[in-house]
């Protein structure tokens, strides 16, 4: 198998960290990209302790220069990336009438602008090598969720972004797919529980009761799906949105 270099955004913790670890155990070298380089240390250490190779990359995905510099550094120090996982995310939940322009811009900026910038910065390596894998993190919230008009718009946008990449880049051997997770236990869902004033264990139990497989998701559930979508064998799967939510979506 050819050597593959991946970059995973928002990989200091949560779903991104699990994906970075999984791709490393699949044999890829991994750029662990997050806002703070020191915060990437745990993910990088876990990868290197398991015999893999990883590089911590500090970048704000919503900032063009920051993203371009991180990708150039990755290409120079670890290798040219042909696998990109656009996972970095933030929440700024509020009902529409209380939502500030800043909360709208921040969420659209990290999820959508961030995915655009990181994909644009890496696509040249994929096109040159006539091989690439793009995975974008959507959400079940793409179908609408009270209090998340910004996040729902961003996550629905990720799906259109993904399908368009699949059309544009397919002829270069590049696939693009989206994963739309349901409830996954991370700091993000813990913060949501805290915001609504519910104990996190109770919050998880209530969520699990509504999920057909009767449990909440773990970051590894998403990492397993990402591992398949970026694999050599997934070359005929493109432009898809895979709901990883313990049950079907409408
Ligand atoms: P998380 O635990 O909050 O982790 C998100 C990571 O993204 C953090 O390390 C965060 O850094 C980083 N990040 C935020 N803004 C960034 C920026 N501008 N540039 C670079 N990195 C940035 O979230 P998660 O639950 O793992 O979620 C990962 C992805 O899955 C997100 O896109 C989320 O929307 C999506 N998702 C999650 C769930 C769920 O139930 N957890 C469900 C559906 C979809 P800091 O720590 O410094 O802020």
From TrEMBL:
Q: Which GO terms describe its molecular function?
A: 3-oxoacyl-[acyl-carrier-protein] reductase (NADPH) activity
Biological process GO annotation list? monocarboxylic acid metabolic process
User: Which reactions are catalysed by this chain?
Assistant: a (3R)-hydroxyacyl-[ACP] + NADP(+) = a 3-oxoacyl-[ACP] + NADPH + H(+)
Keywords for this entry? Answer: Cell wall, NADP, Oxidoreductase, Secreted
- Location within or outside the cell: Secreted, Cell wall
The UniProt entry, under InterPro entries, shows: KR_dom, NAD(P)-bd_dom_sf, Sc_DH/Rdtase_CS, SDR, SDR_fam
Coiled coil ranges (UniProt) are none
PROSITE patterns (UniProt xref): ADH_SHORT
Ketoreductase domain sequence ranges: 4-182
- Keyword Kinase in record: no
Assigned protein family: Belongs to the short-chain dehydrogenases/reductases (SDR) family.
The name of this protein is 3-oxoacyl-[acyl-carrier-protein] reductase MabA
Q: Which organism is it from?
A: Nocardia speluncae
Taxonomy of origin reads: Bacteria, Bacillati, Actinomycetota, Actinomycetes, Mycobacteriales
């Amino acid at each position: 198998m050819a050597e593959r270099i991946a970059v995973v955004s928002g990989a200091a913790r949560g779903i991104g960290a699990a994906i970075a670890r999984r791709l490393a155990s699949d044999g890829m070298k991994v750029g662990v990209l997050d806002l703070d380089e020191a915060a990437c240390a745990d993910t990088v250490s876990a990868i290197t302790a398991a015999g893999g190779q990883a590089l911590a990359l500090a970048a704000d995905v919503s900032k063009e220069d920051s993203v371009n510099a991180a990708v150039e550094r990755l290409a120079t120090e670890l290798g040219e990336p042909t696998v990109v996982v656009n996972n970095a995310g933030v929440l700024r939940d509020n009902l529409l009438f209380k939502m500030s322009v800043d909360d709208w811009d921040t969420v659209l900026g990290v999820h959508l602008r961030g995915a655009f910038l990181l994909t644009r910065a890496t696509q040249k390596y994929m096109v040159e090598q006539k091989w690439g894998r793009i995975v974008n993190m959507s959400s079940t919230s793409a179908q609408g969720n009270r209090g998340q008009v910004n996040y729902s718009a961003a996550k629905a946008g990720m799906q259109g972004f993904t399908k368009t990449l699949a059309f544009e880049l397919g002829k270069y051997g590049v696939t693009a797919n989206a994963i739309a997770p349901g409830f996954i236990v991370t700091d993000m869902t813990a913060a949501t529980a805290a915001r609504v004033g519910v104990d996190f264990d109770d919050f998880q139990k209530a969520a699990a009761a509504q999920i057909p497989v009767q449990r909440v998701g773990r970051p590894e559930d998403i990492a397993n799906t990402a591992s398949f979508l970026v694999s050599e064998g997934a070359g005929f799967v493109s432009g898809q949105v895979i709901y990883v939510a313990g049950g079907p979506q409408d």
